[in-house]
Give the backbone structure.
Amino acid sequence: MTDDAQAPADQHARVVVIGAGQAGLSVGYHLRRLGLTPGSDLVLLDRAPSTGGAWQFRWEALRLGAAHRVHDLPGMNAMGLRFDDADRSRPARDVVGEYYRRFEQRYDLRVRRPVSVSSVSRIGDSPGASGGLCVTVRTADGRTSRIGAEVVVNASGTWGTPFVPWYPGRDAFGGRQLDTTEYRSAAEFAGQDVVVVGGGTSAIGFLLELDGVAARTRWFTRRPVVWSESAALDLESAVAAVDEQDRAARAGETLPSIVSGTGVPVSRRIRAGLERGVLQDSPMFTRLDETGVVTADGEHVHADAVIWATGFRADLRHLAPLHLRTAAGGIVVEDGRSVDQPRLFLAGYGPQASTIGANRAGRRIARQVMDVLAGDDAGSTPAVGSD
């Protein structure tokens, strides 16, 4: 049992939702409709300074329609809002932030931000569901407090944990290295030679924006990029990719990339980039040196900067005190619920990772949460530190 669990709680809630992006807001909306009151028995926490989830951190040039589609939150249509009708001349981060802010206000979700969750631990000694959970949070001014909860819904997403693989010579490279979260503008690379690594939509977006700004770009991927001739995701491929995510989640494995199973839809913008020769991927290089990268056949590619658009991992660090991570690197999750900690749900995880998956899962998880609350023999949240 951790120190967090032994200390008295500063507040008690029936449900704590960690994260106010697509998944967290969807769950919060449905829990409110099922009778929980935001701010008291339903507490939503978000570490970001403003609304919009991870979208608020994306680069200024990104527009809606240039990346994966953003699906409407449940209840947005009743407000007269649809992302399909949104202004695509504005930065996507501004549009999503505005729509999410109006959504939170309309449904009075009372999200607390910026609040970071440092840990989630068990209350009492039981590893099962009987003891409840303690959520330790830290505010921007450094104050720490604890919330005792009957159920925790983790919707922390992936933006906080970009994945950058290690390659020989990475630490010797003398130029700039950055991941997706650190990219701000193509103008920063004007006149430079830039290597972009990764086979997803972020890498493609960077290459298209750098075209005509950087002196040269070179694109490296671990596996050949599969292009989908349809501008929308092929249904069969999408279903197969979601099934693979579900299998990995149930097995407690590290989750695979969605795009690796679906391919990349060829929009008009991407088609133009293919025709210009901007989007030509090369097999992954074998190492870096002080001035660039070296391919498997010995070619040296000069680089002033390397952009690692190599994806993300689920941000689950605050769940470490629960000891749920398997030897395979993941958490065993079935239908959005932790198998080993029944009071913990993971929204937007595994097969729910896409925006539509997280959206649809909100209602299902909310109903499961209410079932747990209804079946709680204790009748109220136990005090943190009780046995």
The longest strand covers residues 144-154. Helices lie at 3-6, 22-33, 92-106, 201-210, 235-251, 259-262, 268-276, 355-374. The first helix runs from residue 3 to 6. Residues 377-387 have pLDDT under 50 and may be disordered.
